[in-house]
Amino acid sequence: MVRARTRWAAALIFFLLASAAWSQAATKQDKKSDIESRVNELLKRMTLEEKAGQLNQILFDESNVDAAIGQGSVGSVVNATGAEQVNRLQHIAVDKSRLHIPILFAYDVIHGYRTIFPVPLALAATWNPQAVERMARISAKEASAAGIRWTFSPMVDIARDPRWGRIAEGSGEDTVLDSAMAAAYVRGYQGDDLSNPASIAACVKHFAGYGAAEGGRDYNSVDMSERQLRTVYLPPFKAALDAGAVTVMSSFNTLNGIPNTANPFTLRHVLKGEWNFHGFVVSDWRSIIELISHGVASDEQQASQEAITAGVDMDMIGGVYYKYLPDLVRTGVVPESVLDDAVRRILRIKFELGLFDHPYTDPRLEQRELLAPAHVEAARQVAQESMVLLKNDGALLPLSKTTKTIALIGPLADDQADLLGNWFGKGEAKDVVSIMEGIRAKLPADARLLHSRGVDVVGTSVEGIPDAVATAKQADVVVMVLGEKGAMSGEAASRAHLGLPGKQEELLQAIVATGKPVVLVLINGRPLTIQWAADHVPAILEAWLPGIQGGNAVADLLFGDADPSGKLPVTFPRTVGQVPLYYNHLNTGRPPGPKADKKYFSGYIDETYTPLFPFGYGLSYTSFQYSGLKLSGDQMENSGKIEVSVDVKNVGTRAGTEIVQLYVHDLVAPVAQPVEELKDFQRVKLAPGAAKTVTFTLHASQLAIWDRDMKFVTEPGKYTVTIGPNSAEGDTATFSVNR
Ligand code: BGC
User: Residue 86 needs a FRET pair 20 to 30 A away by CA distance; which of 224, 254, 421, 478 works?
Assistant: First the structure.
């Protein structure tokens, strides 16, 4: 009797859940078809000029935008911010333009709008997609309160070359980590419902292959096989789209000779074809006009034709779509259906954002959201999680708060502006807690905090070094803050040298020579070649470009109020000559190895082939021991899965968080495979002495490769699986995938 009742209850719950899911799906479907019919209705009423207007994104410039918006020649405005300004412009569009189509306001909200978080490379070092989602949600709340409903983020370009300044803007060198972050950004920006006024549309960029620019020179050409493109560079875009990203930005570079702003393979074939993308593609900044410099178009008219035909729907800043498309359609050069498709895509997203129903922003929100205390606190926590402890000899860190005299040395020690990094939205230097301020706040009133700048970040003067040395000599411990200025990474900030800029290494050497214990805090947006520091400085904390709470987060870690848990999302080379150096390389026929670091192997005659710090590396104030690697079986069906587990124990005396990483190697395949590839990772927080069995489910689909016929298949055969604390250490077991 009791059992029958339980069965009834279970059936009822199942029925209710199923009908709720069904009605949710039905509502979604209704909403979709409603949007499609509203789009079609509107399209029917549009002139060719009004259609081209929707494809036209202009730069906010107070002198000319009002008239352009009023005549319906603008679909989107970039860089107009603030509820008041945006509402004023939106009123012109909605009240004065013939069809009352709202404007989509865009802005580069990359790692925060006003509350600035660490730069994306640092965010990736958290290995915590939830932290990134939180950052993106906060960014969306602040940006939308200021009238922005579209951000040009996330940048998901895989970057294996630290010379490329834009490495700071992405999630590093690994496809799986980048994909996890890409999806997290999108979830955070767009939320569950794009029509929520606090959601903003994501724009996944730069499509595609931009991070592989030759020589690390920004905007430079990219030549790579389709296999490489599909294996390494495209999956993060797909992950962002699967998470719902509604817009994509085409990249500046050529890919195998074709500029991506006119590349039908990437845009029509892959994105809008294979992937069935229903949102729209925006060009990069004037990149349609740049087709002329690339030498694939002779003039602006041809450039417009090439770009729209290839699948670029919106012209960022160029103004050429608006100028030429109506005539190109009238003369039959561009079919009207091509123009209509682009307009449809843009209108669709405007409807999905709810812009037609609520085009304006409540001006009171701005006051409430920008720099809200919860946002600032989140920036501090995320910054703590993003920092990577690279070295800590003799447990120099954490420092004691009762240290009598601390010398703070270096050009970035009391800096505010540079900690914001690059693309810092509406961030302001005055919002930034400097490292000096962060440390000061930790110390009792009678502690001495001395400061000497020593040298500038860039420049040749060494005049300040004697003062810095004299200051260091008075201290019990020296904290040095060295690195790059915020603008030394990001767009158009490629570097040919990867060492500490200017005379900073000279300063470091002089201070180390005093014999005082030295902690080096690094501020930078890319891997630096810091071999000398790694050899001579006992403690090194990679703090990246940490945002407005950088100083507090550094101090939290230095004094042990927080434990370092970040891991490198990129390989740190020893010297620029090793670049590109990445962990998931092929073996080659002459692999270098510990015993083969000599001639006729794939190494160097004047440097080792190993990195300074490998991908996935990062220390903690405690230690973790890995043991008992187990597989649920040593055979996997071709469409099956196995479980892989390992015991992780905190064998130190402090609590800590470990990022447990799982790597796989396909031993024999028709196409040579990387020596290892990250497939999954998990965070575990452990009290001292505590242990946990960490279990991963590895699906055969995660092992798929692009085979010789460019089919995406899981190959039968032997694999190794390694679980460990980084890409260079771990315990390994073997399994086979059956035919
Ligand atoms: C950059 C994009 C950015 C755009 C708009 C371009 O120069 O490449 O990443 O979103 O400008 O500011």
Answer: 421
